[in-house]
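Example record for the data management plan.
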Amino acid sequence: MYCFNKGCYHNEFYVCDWDMFWTRHPDAGKHALLRAISGGPVYVSDQVGETDAAVLRPLACRDGRLLMMKRSAKPTADCIFRDPRQEGVLKLHNVADYGSGMAGGIAVYNLTDRAQTFSFAASDIPELDAANPFWVYDWFARKAVRLEPGARFEGTVEAGGCGWYPVLPTGRHAALLGIVQKYVGFAALETVQETDTATLFVVREQGPLGWLADRSPRRVTVNAVDCTDLVQWEEPLYALPLPESGGKAVVVLEWDRA
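Corresponding structural encoding:
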């Protein structure tokens, strides 16, 4: 009930924090994901010298700036009057800036001792325009599904498990994941522009990048350097394994006219 209150009520009055956690704990990964979608600050209570940096890296850039979502995470409407400790799952949603619009994400938590099925639609995130198609990306499985307006994504989460599903606008050509090893990697996008033949985006720092698309770009450049041959493709996920660096990346995807 604690996170229900924070999402439904506290967010209307102040920026929420979702408390501290230990990075060396069996549930540390679940807690890190919870902080990623929380929309608040992140702090831990590890003993000095005992912090597991690998647990925290998906939350922030190399300079320590958090990839924060815009508000406090809120439960989807179908969760509010059900006890997820007894049946079903807890689904939390939030949004972040994405170019001139918004992208979102849904974190799914199974608090029971048996596998649970679940579903959600883009319309479960109020800020998203549900009249448009979206890509849903299964962050842990590295798979994606395109959702047409009104369609629902369906999945299963193991007992005591969790899942993370960015929900991204399809755009003219591609949905941009941003830095793929970050939970909210799309929040690292500073600029997104599309024309009939190009998608340009600026990323806050360099690292492995990704996007979702129904077709391959003709050419890919990073800071004006041709990187087309580096692109790895596993339909519909395109990955560009750039080395991690503190510098910005200006990426241009060039497309043939459909």
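Summary line stored alongside the record: The radius of gyration is 18 Å.
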